[in-house]
Amino acid sequence: MSEIKKKFGKKIKYYRELRGLTQEELAEKLDFNCRSLSFIECGTNFVTAETLDKICKILEITPKQLFDFEYYIKNPEDIKKELFSLIDRNTEKIPDVYKIVKGFLE
């Protein structure tokens, strides 16, 4: 299995989860079955140009974002958006997050 396919699949999963979508929801939007998307996310299969375009539109990202496998430092606004997205999807953990952040910043 190609390292590029694995990294690419991980990036799709990352952005899918960041948008709060399940595999089933993204597969449905792509008109795929869930198993096909799973194979892409785990790096077994790759996508066509048409599917790449659909994924980018649904996840509101660019192809460059999916193929940027190098480590990069995110800007503070992107980090803030990602944190708020995680908090919105895990509201039951807000008290724990608050304690950790407060303890770190005080």
Care to describe what's here?
The chain has 106 residues and is mainly alpha-helical. It has 2 domains: 1-70, 434 Repressor (Amino-terminal Domain); 73-106. It is built from 7 helices and no strands. α2 crosses α3 (34-41). The mean pLDDT is 89.
- Name the CATH superfamily assignment of the largest domain: lambda repressor-like DNA-binding domains
The number of E-state strands comes to 0
CATH topology of the largest domain: 434 Repressor (Amino-terminal Domain)
* Distance N to C terminus: 47 Å
Could you say which structural class the secondary elements and strand pairing correspond to?
Answer: mainly alpha
Total helices: the number is: 7
Low-confidence stretches: none
Task: Break the fold down into its secondary structure elements and pairings.
Elements: H1 3-18, H2 23-30, H3 34-41, H4 49-59, H5 63-67, H6 76-89, H7 94-105
Helix pairs in contact: 2-3
Keywords:
106 residues, mainly alpha, 434 Repressor (Amino-terminal Domain), 2 domains
Concise summary:
The protein has 106 residues and is mainly alpha-helical. The protein is 70% helix and 0% strand. It has two domains: 1-70, 434 Repressor (Amino-terminal Domain) (Orthogonal Bundle); 73-106.
